[in-house]
Amino acid sequence: MTPTSIPSTHAPAPVGIVHLGLGAFHRAHQAVYLERNLARHDGGPWGIASANLRSNRQLVELMRERDQRYHVAEYTDSDTLTLREIAAIRETLYAGSGGEDLEALLARMSEPGVRIVTLTVTEKGYHLDPADGRLLLDAEPIRHDITNPTQPRTAPGMLVEALARRFTAGTPAFTVLCCDNMPDNGKRTRRAVIELARRRDEKLAEWIADAVAFPSSMVDRIVPAMSEAEFERLRTLGIDDPVAVACESFSQWVIEDDFPQGRPDWQHDGVQMVADVAPFEAMKLRMLNGSHSLLAYLGALAGIETVAEAVGRPEFAALLRGYMRREAAPTLAMPADIDLGAYADRLIERFTNDSLHHRLQQIAMDGSQKLPQRWLTGAQKQLEADGEIACTALGVAAWIRYTAASNLAGESHPVDDPMAETFAALHANHDKPEPLIAAFLALDSVFPSELADDARFSRAVLDAYRTLNECGVEEALTILDVP
Ligand code: CS2
């Protein structure tokens, strides 16, 4: 394979954006759009300062050693690869516990030249109740930030402290752009920040409510965690880069156009600027992420390792098509030019990309934070309209079985979830399906009570759970009324 290489040649750009969450996704998504922007202008005011808040100090050190330059390897398929050099990130910081850079980060966020703060801190990084979006005031990190507001540990805490400094100094507020996979992600972030600010100073909370814009956004690009095998593959192509990221060539970013302090003209870089992101968010969460989670739990129970391997099996591909057409698409109200059938076909094609070693275990993590927006809102809408929920119920049953920390062959796997201890206790206390399913559906931070109390839903989950355990995944797909 001969990759197409695109070097970075633009002039260094001063920092205009601070980003919280220097993970692979940020480096392969937002930073690539900004790189295009800086390349078009040969610089400009929108360089990024990017910080890790909780883990991976080593990445920050490696980025610094490489003068903040790295490569993004975009695979269209196993024969087509574009290698981009990215220099949009101008500064990296580590503000985790013991992080010497916390003060530097807060100082950066307080500078007048910083007009946007973007975030990818994952769903759990906001410390919101996944079902109703309330700030979890009793969560330990939030309690810490309430007691030590000037030494925050959480993303909402850092936003509040930086905004407090701007408020005191008379510096205009920055715009907060959430780029995590949550519905109404701007509104949710706003709620977290204002609820936290209110614990500190009512005036500050009022100012934030009036002065800070929190546009919503939909982000999309499949970016698997890097593996040693992928680093090795890149080395064979001449790229010896310990902070390289590999991803698919597809990328989408839809942003609500609400930036009172200005923004990059990134509509020329492939970003879709719209008045209302909600339909795009719902489409992506229920169709793409919902399908991903179906593959993750059912595939993991069947001992399958990657997305491409799972979707390569006809029964899984049929399940995804059926789920999207019969259970997800009917819940969506899209602008006239969006064809959900074509969107679904494109997703299956993207999942089939076998150049990406996208592990199901990576997608399976944090189910408690993901299920509501991926499956449960859709299931509620379907039940209201007397629609089908068989695939979703099967997914929920597979998730519950997955949280027992073993697959159907009895091989164990880790359960990476903020509620993992609760799940372990539920499995330990209930060895019969009926009470176990009832106990899971009673977790009100995951399942809205109207859904848990709907006998059509609970019965379908219980049936699916029994069938999965008794017959295995493949047969369950045939027996249950799924496509
Ligand atoms: C995945 C997402 O890990 C997961 O939960 O479903 O990270 C997914 O790959 C991205 O949202 C694609 O844009």
UniProtKB/TrEMBL annotation:
<dbReference type="InterPro" id="IPR013118">
    <property type="entry name" value="Mannitol_DH_C"/>
</dbReference>
<feature type="domain" description="Mannitol dehydrogenase N-terminal">
    <location>
        <begin position="16"/>
        <end position="267"/>
    </location>
</feature>
<protein>
    <submittedName>
        <fullName>Mannitol dehydrogenase family protein</fullName>
        <ecNumber>1.1.1.-</ecNumber>
    </submittedName>
</protein>
<dbReference type="InterPro" id="IPR050988">
    <property type="entry name" value="Mannitol_DH/Oxidoreductase"/>
</dbReference>
<dbReference type="InterPro" id="IPR013131">
    <property type="entry name" value="Mannitol_DH_N"/>
</dbReference>
<feature type="domain" description="Mannitol dehydrogenase C-terminal">
    <location>
        <begin position="276"/>
        <end position="468"/>
    </location>
</feature>
<dbReference type="InterPro" id="IPR023027">
    <property type="entry name" value="Mannitol_DH_CS"/>
</dbReference>
<dbReference type="Pfam" id="PF01232">
    <property type="entry name" value="Mannitol_dh"/>
</dbReference>
<dbReference type="InterPro" id="IPR000669">
    <property type="entry name" value="Mannitol_DH"/>
</dbReference>
<dbReference type="GO" id="GO:0016491">
    <property type="term" value="F:oxidoreductase activity"/>
</dbReference>
<dbReference type="InterPro" id="IPR036291">
    <property type="entry name" value="NAD(P)-bd_dom_sf"/>
</dbReference>
<keyword id="KW-0560">Oxidoreductase</keyword>
<dbReference type="InterPro" id="IPR008927">
    <property type="entry name" value="6-PGluconate_DH-like_C_sf"/>
</dbReference>
<dbReference type="Pfam" id="PF08125">
    <property type="entry name" value="Mannitol_dh_C"/>
</dbReference>
<dbReference type="InterPro" id="IPR013328">
    <property type="entry name" value="6PGD_dom2"/>
</dbReference>
<keyword id="KW-0520">NAD</keyword>
